[in-house]
Design brief:
22 helices, six-stranded parallel beta sheet, alpha/beta, Rossmann fold
């Protein structure tokens, strides 16, 4: 079998360097690099990527062994139909390890064709480390490395204000662009790089806040031999990703004009504010996950797909999404329904086995962030509490009681203080005590939820019903 490289894969194309990418992992290769591939082929974007390894131990050497080529396998439901696509991604030109190739790394700033900086260095990557020094080769942190690179560009262009970068971080933190700029400015001050450079950092570069969404299971270890036979190459960098993808970019108009992802038919939105879209994702994707998991598990189901496809639990999931969570958002209803339909397809993805127990870690903090805002808004707008969402909290409470589901031991896992609280409350054997104690736990919610009209009584009644009648019968009573 042929080794995958640019000699054996004659269909691979070459593109001029335009993007510096911090991160060589599965997510960026299945998300941003695939988007660049689509733009190159559909709208003539004509952009190549240079990957920078952000940590000392990384995968750049593996990339180079295959001339930076790899296959992406997209799998999932598209408009309700199962779809599987295999593509050879050819947009990465080179990989640089700044720990062993520092001069080559810094030389990237001298190539003025390099216009974009894209990153995914994990949630912990955008941080300031006061022990970093400007003379380090390289600085330890990602913002430190980027500050070094930007200073080199500033010198190379003599401070020209039209020769900066478009910076699009993809780390999963809120307002990632703003936080990255904040860290860079801290390094400018720490390293005394001067007022002129500081002004250039702020005025000559565009820092985008982004929201990224695509499930990327990664390297398909269980089926890799069959995939290699299918593609005809020995590819050790195959990556799998779901069909669904979403990139939301809060940025000035110039970014949209220079990064034409929307023109390539990609699900990329350039918006003036991230907040409605972040709220949409948290509410309509994460919110249903948080309540369907304990409800489904206590009904005897094990995966998200099983829950959504089940006649009763599937109706519960749709009630929570379309009738309750959706009603708490302010985007156009048609847009919210379309997004919800995509979420249902993602939940039903036959290629992904998403265990509900993996979602139930730290359920109480998740409910606070993902579902509680909708509970209060629904009450404010409709004059009653949302039954499915309150039942979801009741299911969490019962799950945290422990015990057994059939032959399986129930093993809740959360912050030690939350586990201690639930253990103490359940030792009373009184559901009213449990409901009151959970809602009064201001260290969880930041407030006393017994003050929310009717919440305590409704929560207590659902907990009682689950214990007396079982989860499935309780769900039937509200749908």
């Amino acid at each position: 079998m042929n080794t995958l490289n640019r000699t054996t894969a004659t269909v691979a194309k070459s593109y001029p360097n335009r993007i510096i990418q911090f991160g060589e992992g599965n997510f960026l290769r299945a998300f941003i690099d695939w988007m660049v591939y689509e733009m190159n082929n559909k709208v003539g974007f004509n952009a190549g990527v240079t990957v920078v390894q952000p940590i000392e131990q990384g995968m750049v050497s593996m990339l180079k062994e295959q001339d930076c080529l790899y296959h992406l396998i997209e799998k999932g439901l598209e408009k309700g139909e199962a779809v599987r696509r295999v593509q050879l991604i050819d947009v990465i030109n080179n990989g640089v390890n700044p720990y062993t190739e520092y001069d080559a790394y810094m030389a990237l700033a001298d190539d003025l064709n390099n216009r974009f900086i894209i990153s995914n260095t994990t949630e912990a990557g955008i941080c300031f480390d006061a022990t970093d020094k400007f003379e380090d080769k390289p600085a330890k942190s990602f913002p430190g490395k980027l500050t070094q690179l930007m200073y080199r560009r500033f010198q190379a262009v003599s401070g020209a204000n039209d020769k900066g970068f478009i910076v699009m971080p993809c780390e999963l933190i809120d307002r990632n662009g703003d936080n990255l700029l904040k860290a860079i400015l801290q390094y400018v001050d720490l390293w005394s790089l001067g007022a002129e450079f500081k002004a250039w950092v702020e005025s000559a570069n565009h820092y985008c806040n982004t929201l990224v969404d695509r499930i990327v299971p990664g390297f398909p270890r269980e089926t890799i031999n069959e995939i290699k036979e299918e593609v005809g190459y020995n590819d050790n960098l195959v990556v799998e990703g779901e069909i669904f993808h979403l990139l939301v970019v809060e940025a000035p108009e110039i970014v949209k004009s220079e990064f034409p992802a929307d023109k390539a038919g990609l699900n990329v939105l350039f918006v003036p504010s991230m907040k409605p879209y972040r709220d949409r994702k948290v509410t309509l994707l994460n919110g249903p996950h948080t309540v369907l998991s304990p409800v489904g598990y206590l009904s005897g189901l094990d995966t998200v797909a099983e829950c959504v496809d089940h006649e009763v639990i599937g109706a519960y999931v749709r009630k929570a999404m379309y009738q309750e969570l959706l009603a708490s958002l302010d985007l156009p209803e048609s847009e919210l329904v379309e997004f919800s339909n995509d979420v249902i397809d993602r939940f039903r993805n036959p290629f992904v086995k998403h265990m509900v127990t993996s979602i139930m870690l730290n359920s109480f903090p998740k409910y606070k962030t993902r579902d509680l805002p909708a509970v209060k808004l629904y009450l404010e707008r409709k004059g009653e509490l949302p039954a499915a969402l309150v039942l979801g909290l009741a299911a969490i409470c019962v799950y945290y009681k422990g015990g057994k589901r059939g032959n399986d031991e129930i093993k809740p896992n959360d912050d030690a203080a939350i586990m201690e609280l639930l253990n103490n409350l359940w030792s009373s054997n009184d559901v009213d005590v449990v409901a009151e104690g959970v809602l009064k736990a201001s260290f969880i919610w930041g407030e006393d939820l017994t003050l929310v009209d009717g919440f305590e009584a409704k929560l207590s009644s659902y907990i009682s019903s689950i214990l007396d009648n079982g989860m499935m019968e309780t769900v039937k009573s509200i749908i």
